[in-house]
Amino acid sequence: MELLDLINENLIVTGLEASNKEETIKKLIDMLEKEERLISREKFFEDVLFREQLCSTYVGQGVAIPHGKTDAVKKTSVAIGKLAKPIEWDEKENNYVNIVFLLAVQDKDADNQHLRILANIATKLMEKDFIDNLTSINDKDGILALFREDTKEL
């Protein structure tokens, strides 16, 4: 399975208007629900927030990767949001984000697939050209094309 198998143009939003972490996550969950990737949006939201309480998912460079591994997910997926304005992600650390990758992982994929997805995204984010391109692209097609350039088997 490739990262592109988990994303489509309906799971990407640019210019996302949100004022905080919870609102951002809810709006990305809306996209997952609309694409019929979730069994329960409420439970998935609770699971993602629970994970956030354990440890912030801010990864640097204005990026956060919140995630939930739960039976509330019907199909393992990734939703991507580029915010219109940066928001504070972690009050304690004063971290601001403008790009969010929300991972929705089925229980059955929790052990192996979850780590592969995180590793794949993290590897891409370490590449200066990738992060520069991701930051400058402001449309869904451009973001999908960026991921197509360097797909890896998960």
Automatic annotation (TrEMBL):
UniProt keyword annotations, A-Z: Phosphoprotein, Phosphotransferase system, Sugar transport, Transferase, Transport
Source species taxonomy: Bacteria, Bacillati, Bacillota, Clostridia, Eubacteriales
Record-level GO BP terms: phosphoenolpyruvate-dependent sugar phosphotransferase system
InterPro entries: PTrfase/Anion_transptr, PTS_EIIA_type-2_dom, PTS_IIA_fruc, PTS_SugarTrans_NitroReg
Keyword Phosphoprotein applies: yes
Stated name of the protein: PTS system, fructose-specific IIA component
Superkingdom assignment: Bacteria
Keyword Phosphoprotein set for record: yes
Its EC number(s): 2.7.1.69
An example Gene Ontology molecular-function term: protein-N(PI)-phosphohistidine-sugar phosphotransferase activity
A GO CC term attached to the entry: membrane
Record-annotated PTS EIIA type-2 domain positions: 5-150
Pfam family, one: PTS_EIIA_2
